[in-house]
Amino acid sequence: MQRLPDYLRRGIIQTDTTKNVRHILRNNCLNTVCEAARCPNKAECYTKNTAAFLIMGNNCTRNCRFCNITCSKPEPLNPFEPEHIAKAVVELKLKYVVITSVTRDDLQDGGASHFAEVIRAVKSLDNGVKIEVLTPDFQGRSSSVDTVIEAKPDVFNHNIETVPSLYKIARPQAVYQRSLDFLDYIKKNSKILTKTGLMVGLGETKEELTETFKHLAGIKCDIVTLGQYIAPSKEHLPVVKYYKPEEYVELENIAKNLGIKYTFFSPLARSSYKAQEVFLN
């Protein structure tokens, strides 16, 4: 395993704010993708009173080889979860909320109606809060996408994660074209901003990334994030390459020149990292 470069290392931050965030999440029986996916930015985000809420349990029905979330039998949906998230949003004084989930292929609508209930619960307590959802592909069901669109999130995010050639090894239960069509459907059937995220370091080439940016520009995806893949353990896919900071600048320029409006390319960029700043920019 390659040595992690110094620019990807994050120290442990423990403050009264981070303790308070963890306390509020625990008291409301809530999960975050920050903890479940071992995000390197979680301490920084907690110090800013932000977190990406992970709904519908901690167990995923898919086994993507880059992800730290457990693939196991999913838990039953918690009918009180929308209410608990809305309460936590108020207690944390959030003005921008990211709602994501494990993939729930066991549910008829993939969990779309649960996403919609969370959006409505948050809006009912504070209609000024901006809401970003990061959803799975719902197995390509347009009816599920419609359910989330009708709840009116401000940003609709779905990650394509990597280039087409790496899907078989990185996310074998997903389909690249299905994810592109998913984002395209949102854009053609709503005025909601669309967003997606990619990892680098799995073995993709610059040419493959450029082609992917062309695909995303072609479907008018509004926001694209790109960051370094960091293997959660030795059991996950190994890192093929650690990109240098200047390579992110080069890739970001390529994406912008191809017509992508908003980009956030950085070694530690993640889908929900600094989501509010990206949205406001």
Describe the structure.
This protein is α/β, with parallel strands linked by helices and about 280 residues long. Helix content is about 40%, strand content about 15%. An eight-stranded mixed sheet has the order 1-2-5-6-7-8-9-10. The protein has a two-stranded parallel ribbon with strand order 3-4. α4 (about 80-90) runs parallel beside α5 (about 110-125), α5 (about 110-125) packs parallel to α6 and α6 (about 140-150) packs across α8 (about 175-190). It is globular and about 45 Å long. The N and C termini lie far apart (about 35 Å). The model is unreliable at about 35-40 (pLDDT under 50).
Low-confidence stretches: 33-42
Which structural category do the helix and sheet elements fall into? Answer: alpha/beta
In spatial order, strands of the major sheet run: 1-2-5-6-7-8-9-10
- Kindly provide the radius of gyration, computed on alpha-carbon positions and rounded to a whole number of angstroms: 18 Å
